[in-house]
Amino acid sequence: MYRKDRKKYKKWNKRCSICFLLFIVVLLSANISEAENKPVQTRTKHTIEKSSKVIRTKKKKAKKLIGIDPGHQMVGNSSLEAIGPGAKVKKAKVAGGTTGLYTKVPEYKLTLSIAKKLKKELLNRGYDVVMTRTKNDVDISNKERAEKINKAKADICIRLHADGSNSTSVSGASVLYPSKENKYCSKISTKSKKLAESVIKSYCTKTGMKNRGKIVRDDLTGTNWSKVPVIVLEMGFMTNKQDDIYMQTKKGQDKMVQGIANGVDNYYK
User: How far is CA 181 from CA 36, 188, 221, 229, in A?
Assistant: First the structure.
C-alpha cells in the first residue's frame, strides 16, 4: 500500500514539475514577444512624428506675388479706353510720358530699368514677380496692364512712374492710391493706402528724396481696373536737376530699388 502511494506521489510530483516548467516557458515566451514588439512601436511613433513634420513643411506659406508695371512705353497710344469698368469717361490708352530735362532719358526707359532691378531684388527676398512689360517696344494699354496683373492673381501691384513740372525747383517723390469713394475699386482702397504709406516712407528714407506724401487719385485707368491693392510711385521729378541725375546713377537706382523693396517688406509685417 505504501509503495503504491509512493509511486502515485512520484507520478504526481513529476507532473507538477512538468507543468511548472511549461508555465516558465510560456512566461518567458510572452516576455520575449513583448520585448520584440517594443522597438516596432517606437519606430511607428517615430515614423508618424516624422510624417507630421513633412506635412507641416508642405504647408509653408505660399510666396507673395508682386505685380510691377513699368509706366509708359516707347511710343504712346492716343486711342481711347474707359477709365474703369462701365465708365463713360475715356482717356488715352498710354500717354507718352516725361523725359529727363538734364539727362535726356525718357520716362519709359527709366521705369523699365528700375522695374528689372526691383524684380531681381524682390526675387532675392523670396517674393514672386509678374511684370506688365519687359521691353520698351510694346503696345500695352493701361487697362490691359491692370488686367494682366489681375489674371496673374498678384497680391499687390506697384506702378512705376516719374514726375514732371513746369518749375525746375520742384522735387521729391509721391505716391498715388484710390480713395474709398472710388466707384471702380473702392474695395482695395484701404490696403492700397497701407501699401502707399509703407512704400513712400521706406523709399524716401533710403534715397533721401523729399517725401511729397500720399495723393488720392480716382481718374487713373491702370488703377481703376485693378482688383488688387495698387499704387503709383512717382519716383522723382525728371524736370529737377538733382532728381533727374540721381535717378540715372547706379548708386541712385540701387537705393531706389532697396527703398521700394523695403516698403514691400514692411507692408507685409
Answer: 73, 11, 16, 15
